[in-house]
């Protein structure tokens, strides 16, 4: 598939969805406070562009900070589990337990503990992405081809050198997959934290617009959040693709 076709396909899909949205809003007898027309959302985007920009910047900072801390912490824990089976036996149940409790239920506690500022939203984002990063990287470290391990042992590689030069490079594609997933879901943690308690951010703006029945502004904030998430994921995918240049890239048909 050519580059133009890969770009054209999502554009056509998006335009088709907008047309369906416009048709439902125009002829579906749906009140505007339930489903505003695309034109109303576009006008809200323009009128409130300054407010939306400030809110998006707040959510973006929370997301990026949570992403950095979550990826760093998850990768470090996965390395420790790979080095020590004892660490793995003791920490893996805790990692699984962190997913057994819905993050939505933890949001009020995090706001209570860390306040209404960015800290609680960053912690929320870290909790959302910690498990996919840790589990994917740990699986990648465990699934190093046995032939590579045997060859390294034959050449007299120590355990540390084997991890650094064999297991770690082999596990980087798995870590990249976890980071891509984390990039896509990190904004969820930030926005949920803003819903529970905040004074700025896209989640706070959506909550405020909802209580005031400003559905067009709520849709505009949701659209900005979606675009921000897609751009963030695309940028991360581009960086990972350049960094892991030896991993073959297969474009969809």
UniProtKB/TrEMBL annotation:
Its main location: membrane. GO terms for biological process: transmembrane transport. The chain crosses the membrane at residues 7-24, 60-82, 94-116, 185-205, 217-236. It is found in: Cell membrane. Residues 56-240 form the ABC transmembrane type-1 domain. The keyword Transport applies. GO terms for cellular component: plasma membrane. The keyword Protease does not apply. Belongs to the binding-protein-dependent transport system permease family. This is ABC transporter permease. It comes from Gluconacetobacter entanii.
């Amino acid at each position: 598939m050519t580059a133009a076709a890969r770009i054209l396909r999502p554009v056509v899909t998006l335009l088709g969805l907008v047309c369906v949205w416009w048709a439902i809003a125009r002829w579906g007898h749906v009140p505007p406070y339930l489903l505003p027309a695309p034109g109303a959302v576009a006008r809200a985007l323009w009128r409130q562009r300054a407010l939306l920009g400030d809110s998006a910047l707040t959510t973006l900072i929370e997301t990026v900070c949570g992403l950095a801390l979550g990826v760093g912490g998850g990768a470090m824990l996965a390395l420790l589990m790979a080095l020590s089976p004892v660490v793995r036996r003791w920490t893996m149940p805790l990692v699984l337990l962190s997913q057994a409790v819905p993050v939505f239920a933890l949001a009020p506690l995090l706001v209570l503990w860390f306040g209404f500022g960015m800290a609680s939203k960053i912690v929320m984002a870290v909790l959302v992405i910690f498990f996919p990063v840790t589990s994917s990287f740990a699986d990648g470290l465990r699934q190093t081809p046995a032939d590579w391990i045997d060859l390294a042992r034959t050449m007299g590689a120590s355990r540390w050198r084997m991890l650094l030069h064999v297991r770690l490079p082999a596990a980087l594609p798995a870590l990249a997959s976890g980071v891509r997933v984390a990039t896509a879901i990190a904004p969820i943690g930030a926005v949920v934290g803003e819903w529970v308690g905040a004074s700025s951010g896209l989640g706070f703006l959506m909550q405020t617009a909802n209580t005031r029945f400003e559905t067009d502004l709520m849709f505009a904030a949701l659209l900005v959040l979606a675009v921000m998430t897609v751009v963030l994921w695309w940028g991360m995918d581009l960086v990972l693709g350049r960094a892991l240049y030896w991993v073959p890239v297969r474009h969809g048909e």
